[in-house]
Design a protein that fits this description.
Elements (H helix, E strand, L loop, with lengths): L2 H10 L1 H13 L8 H8 L2 E7 L2 E8 L5 E5 L10 H9 L3 E5 L14 H15 L3 E5 L2 H11 L4 E8 L5 H12 L3 H15 L8 H4 L4 E10 L7 H9 L4 E6 L11 H12 L1
Parallel strand pairs: 3-4, 3-5, 5-6, 6-7, 7-8
Antiparallel strand pairs: 1-2, 2-4
Length: 271
């Protein structure tokens, strides 16, 4: 639906437009992988597990005793980490990754932050990892999973950009779609009714205060057009175990395949 039409419909049919915006939040689009990303996935040992009615695709690249779990972002998938995976394998890491519900090569259907989060917690326990790397929304899912599972202890965690407040995600979707504040309130009410969570309480900068991560590194590009850098910076300000590194020249997605960023990740894990 064109944005000008959405603005008109927001006034005339607010409930229908709220449902439209809700579908944008709960039905991720699957993006095509590059050839090198597919090539890296084809090297993995694959398995699948049943989770909340989904068939979840799991990937393992066997290396040494050191291991890392990779958590992709919303509308992302495991293959997006291909350059990082190849670099970790050269350093003899065993690497685990997955495609979230309705993402990548997992089965499709309506999903949510909370299903994604629950899966992350389950997989951290399943693979018994002490090192994590997340991209974008994966930082929300991971910090919330750790917040919900305070017994999990993580040695090192790299966040390649991260949102902060979940309500900012709603604001972003409403801006992109073109809905007004009345529709936004309906959308928030529906989310809170279905999840039993208060949207204003879902903030990474709050989750990190109560999670057990020994050391964290947040890397964010100053010119990121998807997630403003101030959101990652705010998370770091509330997280005493974190180091914040501002970079330039990568944007939101190229950060995953930029060599100097990959070098920073490896250096952090090898310290």
């Amino acid at each position: 639906m064109k944005k000008p039409l959405v603005k008109i419909a927001s006034v005339l049919f607010p409930n229908r437009v709220a449902s439209f915006a809700y579908n944008q939040l709960t039905n991720p689009q699957v993006r095509k992988l590059r050839e090198n990303e597919l090539a890296t996935l084809n090297k993995a040992d694959r398995a699948s597990i049943k989770f909340k009615g989904f068939n979840i695709q799991l990937y393992t690249w066997m290396g040494g005793t050191k291991s890392v779990l990779l958590i992709h972002g919303w509308e992302g998938q495991a293959g997006n980490f291909s350059d990082i995976i190849e670099a970790l394998l050269k350093k003899s890491y065993t690497v685990y990754a997955f495609d979230g519900p309705s993402h990548g090569f997992s089965s499709k259907g309506k999903t949510s932050l909370f299903e994604f989060t629950e899966l992350v917690g389950l997989l951290i326990k399943k693979f018994k990892v002490k090192n994590l790397v997340s991209h974008s929304f994966g930082g929300v899912a991971t910090t919330y999973a750790l917040h919900q599972n305070p017994e999990i202890i993580i040695d090192k965690y790299v966040l390649l950009t991260t949102p902060d407040k979940f309500v900012e995600r709603i604001d972003d979707v409403c801006h992109i779609v073109g809905v007004n504040n009345s529709v936004k309130k309906r959308l928030v009410n529906r989310l809170e009714l279905e999840t039993g969570k208060t949207v204003l309480d879902l903030n990474v900068s709050d989750f990190v205060k109560s999670i057990y991560v020994k050391r964290a590194l947040i890397i964010h590009d100053k010119d990121d057009k998807v997630i403003p850098i101030n959101r990652s910076r705010n998370v770091s300000d509330y997280w005493s175990q974190s180091e914040f590194k501002e970079i330039g020249g990568t944007g939101h997605f190229r950060i995953l395949r930029t060599q100097f960023v990959i070098d920073l990740v490896l250096e952090f894990f090898n310290e």
